[in-house]
Predict the structure.
Amino acid sequence: MQKKNIVFIGRSLDGFIAGKNGELDWLDMIPNTNSVEMGFADLMQEIDAVVMGKTTFEVVCGFGGAWPYSKHVFVLSNSLKQIPEKWKEKASLLKGSPQDVLSEIHQKGYFKLYIDGGRTVQDFLKEDLIDELRITTIPILLGGGFPLFGELPKRLEFEHVESKLFLDQIVQNCYKRKRKAG
């Protein structure tokens, strides 16, 4: 089975995925009155499971409404003791290094993964475990907040695959990791 780790995330023009106080309201600042689908449904068809950190999981749980994921969610946390009862059928708790987590998830039969959450994405990038970046840029400068990218131990080269324009203002770029054969 082919393994693949995909990041699908929104960011501001200045590279932040959340505002200074964790706010995300700016992600919906462009009215989407026709409910234009921006690739999330396709992503859910492509993957086997979702991997996210505790903070992202808590944010998603706080949205209210229907659970947004059609696939199982693995929550990474060293401090969370259990998944809330309401989400126990939809999510599992894991801890460990990105390599250990992937090994455990692969043993469970999940190979194509959506990696979500700022710190989780950064940790996976540090270990060179991201195969594809799908970054949707919202036309706003936040001036601070939580950056999408952090420091890396080495350069990681990606190649641009495609760009899509949504709602005449939102740009989604897809990049695939360039890896040396062998």
Notes: The domain at 4-16+37-177 is CATH 3.40.430.10 (Dihydrofolate Reductase, subunit A). The mean pLDDT is 95. The first strand starts at residue 4 and ends at 12. Residues 60 and 66 are 10 Å apart (CA to CA).
